[in-house]
Design a protein that fits this description.
homodimer, about 325 residues, 7-stranded mixed β-sheet, 6-stranded parallel β-sheet, 9 helices
């Protein structure tokens, strides 16, 4: 009754954008179930830009990935065998045991998934996940959206960004989004973003932002850092609030990206606040209630880019940075 | 009865630190008083680092100084003649008509001074002024001091910095201050700063800050920007609050100073807020009450560096940036 499961291991630390040569696909035989253990077959796993930070030699915020061991990452799967009273075959569960087709783990590693009725199961790794909630916490608590705010979202076609844009639109705001390439631009227009900046088509991002926001903006939800953040200082209205969520611009390079215009923080009375979603979990039930309502009424679109097959995960990971994927990038495993 | 008054005019826009060659001393005959006008003899004028921004071709926050006209700046003086019902000879008044020995202006340009009983008259341009209040507003409202906070103040021996340090000490905090040179270090120790960093004596500011704040800090009151701000990102505790008040590091250069470590804002959940004191005037009466109490009880020391004579103002201005002046730099005019 032993199950063979394939997993992805990091075999070398990437320089720049990760390529398949940094990874290996390894087949393992899953162990027999011990007491309190559960066997799960993953259905979807998540590919997150921030995983790139864990591929480095060291990271500020978390232990990095060890080489030649299975990598961690969010996954949704189905229980196939259980020696825990808390789970039975057929249960849909969330775990951090992504990058593998199946696994055996203590029941305590698993979380029962709460499906949002109008959204597909994979939304448990996008809108209906901590990543969607990141957009909500950043918009509602850190930026503290107020009526009339004009909102700028960077990496607007990404998982967090596209949900941030939709939340701001549902709340009645004018939204400016930046993204790279015509497919993302089309997607952002489809979800109602008012002004889309294709940063790849703009020689001068600051000028493009100024044109997209002729009267400035009041809230910046930043997933990028670097030159987009630097331009934002220059175009922001007085007293604008910057919710700093991510710095994807710097993930693939070892050199730090300089900012030149942060001095404008003073004359413009800007408030910048970095946040980590785990500090704001008290808001999660409120988000899930709001999301369920938006999804049921058709106001909210869940968007994922789905690759099929574990063997394609390493190549798909690189696409996160080449700008080919829209919304959450997931790998379908079953 | 005409009065001859000397004034300082900017004759060329400085490159780097201003020198006397950028200024001229010009004698003018004050006009006769018109209805509602007042003649004032200045007693002290203020030399502010931020005036340097107004010596540029353009500034973000205010009109720059025109060449070959009297410059503006805070001054305290005494009314010598009045054709306004609101002022009589002998009144002590505040104005923006600094950089000159005397002037005639509409009474509406003047503000009656409220002396703090235990402080000298020149404190109207330092502790008992909008500059002292800048320290208070930044500490109490922007940084929002909480019990137990460890506080780091840059340019700690300057007008705003030295008052910020004293406020934090009076409120019971551990205070780390940066300043340049042994005289400033001695002054900061005298006013009770717990750990003083002489940035001129430290090859690696970040290492010095880490040593002065082995357990990090919770509040940064920044008057400097540049490399001190960059180091602060690295040493700050999680959830530290940065009250950004000034960027003296960049005043004398046209190139913008890059920041490399602002990405730490996210993982450390830092909150940075720039502020301009004029937005917080509602707190001013509270500050004056607190200051009066501190001064009366001897808890608070007013500190000014005083030059004598208008003709010495241009050279004294440059000293603001060479690190020779402690506390507010004033010129005594009468």
């Amino acid at each position: 009754m032993a199950t063979i499961s394939r997993q992805v291991q990091l075999t070398s630390r990437p320089s720049g954008v990760p390529t398949p040569s940094n990874f290996a696909i390894v087949s393992v035989t899953l162990p027999q179930l011990g007491d309190g253990e559960v066997e799960v077959r993953n259905k979807f796993m998540s590919l997150d830009p921030s995983m790139r930070l864990l591929m480095r030699e060291q990271a500020f915020h978390a232990p990095v990935y060890a080489l030649n061991t299975p990598m961690s990452g969010r996954a949704v799967g189905e229980v196939v065998r259980s020696r825990s009273a808390d789970f039975k075959p057929g249960d849909i569960v969330l775990s951090n045991h992504g990058w593998r087709e199946g696994f055996v783990s203590p029941a305590t590693d698993l979380q029962k998934a709460q499906l949002v009725p109008s959204l597909p199961i994979q939304s448990l790794l996008s809108a209906a996940s901590i990543r969607g909630f990141t957009a909500y916490a950043g918009m509602m608590r850190i930026a503290a959206l107020r009526p009339g705010d004009v909102v700028f979202v960077s990496a607007a076609a990404g998982t967090v960004g596209s949900i941030a844009c939709q939340i701001a639109k549902i709340k009645g705001h004018t939204v400016i989004g930046s993204a790279g390439g015509p497919a993302k631009v089309a997607f952002l227009k489809e979800i109602g973003v008012d002004h889309v900046i294709d940063y790849k088509a703009e020689p001068d991002f600051g000028a493009a932002l100024r044109k997209a926001a002729p009267n400035g903006f009041d809230v910046f939800f930043d997933n990028v850092g670097g030159s987009q953040l630097d331009a934002a200082f220059q175009v922001a209205n007085n007293s604008a609030r910057f919710a700093l969520c991510g710095t994807i611009a710097g993930f693939n390079q070892d050199e730090l990206i300089p900012l030149y215009h942060s001095n404008l923080t003073i004359v413009k009375r800007l408030r910048m606040e970095g946040f980590v979603v785990w500090d704001h979990q008290d808001l999660f039930p409120e988000y899930m209630r709001e999301l369920s309502g938006w999804a049921a009424s058709g106001k909210f679109k869940s968007k994922e880019s789905i690759e099929v097959g574990l063997e394609n995960a390493p190549a798909a990971y690189g696409k996160l940075f080449s700008g080919e994927s829209i919304g959450a990038t997931l790998v379908k495993l079953d």
